[in-house]
Design goal:
Layout (H helix, E strand, L loop, with lengths): L9 H5 L52 H7 L12 E8 L3 H12 L2 E6 L8 E8 L2 E8 L5 H9 L2 E8 L3 H10 L3 E11 L2 E9 L5 E10 L8 E2 L12 E10 L5 H12 L2 E2 L9 H5 L1 E7 L6 E7 L7 H9 L3 E9 L2 H10 L9 H5 L1 H5 L6 H7 L2 E5 L2 E7 L10 E8 L6 H17 L4
Parallel strand pairs: 1-4, 5-8, 10-13, 14-17
Antiparallel strand pairs: 1-5, 2-3, 2-9, 3-4, 6-7, 7-8, 10-14, 11-12, 12-13, 15-16, 16-17
The structure holds cobalt (II) ion.
The site of cobalt (II) ion (CO) has 6 residues, from β10 and β14.
Amino acid sequence: MIAHGRGRTLATSLASEHAKSLRSTSQPSEGAGVPPVAAGPTPQFAPAPARGPAVGRPGYHPAHREIRGMTTAATPAPAGALDSLEFDYLELYVGNAKQAAHFYCTAFGFEPLAYAGPETGVHDRASYVVVQDRFRLVLTSSLVPGDAIAEHVGRHGDGVHDVALRTENARAAYAAVMAGGAHGIAEPRELHDADGTAVVATIGTYGETVHTFVDRSAYRGVWLPGFVRWEAAIRAPHAVGLSHIDHCVGNVSWNEMDTWVAYYERAFGFTQLISFDDKDISTEYTALRSKVVTDARNVVKMPINEPAEGLKKSQIEEYLDSYGGPGVQHVAIATNDIIETVRALRANGVELLETPDAYYDALGARVGAIDEEIAILRELDILVDRDDRGYMLQIFTKPLQDRPTLFFEIIQRRGSLSFGKGNFKALFVSIEQEQAKRGNL
Ligand SMILES: [Co+2]
């Protein structure tokens, strides 16, 4: 069967029209003039200040290229403070948070949770928090010209600024990662309001991305101090059933992957997850290299990609060009029923990558027996990969904003710890088979 009219596929989306390459690792500095956030009487949630204002503070390093020497000189993080980390929320800096929040609710099934902005005493930004089961997204826009948020959006477009991590002790977590050579951005600080106290602290990671440690153990409010409950009648037409972040992937520049793997090993005490399907042969088809760092419980899984020379221009290179440097490439969100989730997403108007029919012709032989009907997976363009522990099902959205940068992955694990590497080659081969059928190869 010839796949006439099929749209953009994963592999074609991996290829880029652009010929220019990004080899530079230089970081533009964020706008100056934003004072460091300190604990104080004003109840407001303040995302960590940008790198610029932190210059001179202990632990601050102006350029990530210095990490290698710093981390090798540092001692590993002490055990304990980082043992029970979880993804807490993702904060996206966006051009229009009000509209972005509406999109993530109506298309992806999030529900309104909390809000901070001028009406709550915050005058330089508006933040909307939306929630779905254990996955919280914060959409933040600047309300003033030229501040760190506006500059971030100008450089990167809409994108992930903060991959926040929940901890039972933000001070200890911060102290532990700093002892392991982390880049400090904002020291632990208390945020208060009538519902209690939350403690947050922020460190830097690749590009201008940060991790905020969040400790809500003494806070009873809806979100964090300074936020109020956001009541809005915004609902997705079809419930989506997403549950939590499975993994969060960073793209870094040429030959920087090992540096960032070492950063997480040193600062967080994370280890590399060695996968059964981690074979070098896939690099030819993916034009990327990837290593996964994870905590001891495999809860905070963070693959790190770097571009590689391959059969096509690296999709990582396209990302780096489009985002203006390293950043979060995709966030994989777990579901317990990917077939129902994908049906709902499509019905809500979400654009997902399509898969050539030839992929499904070869699927049974490649992955063996699975519980799902291949005909349904074919209808919905769901991908399957297997490792020595089981299998997993996945599908990718198209980019979530105009720049070809951040996208979501929907994932259902059935025992496998794979991230889907086997799909790169399978998709590549199936696309060429489709081309051959059309006489174009
Ligand atoms: Co993934």
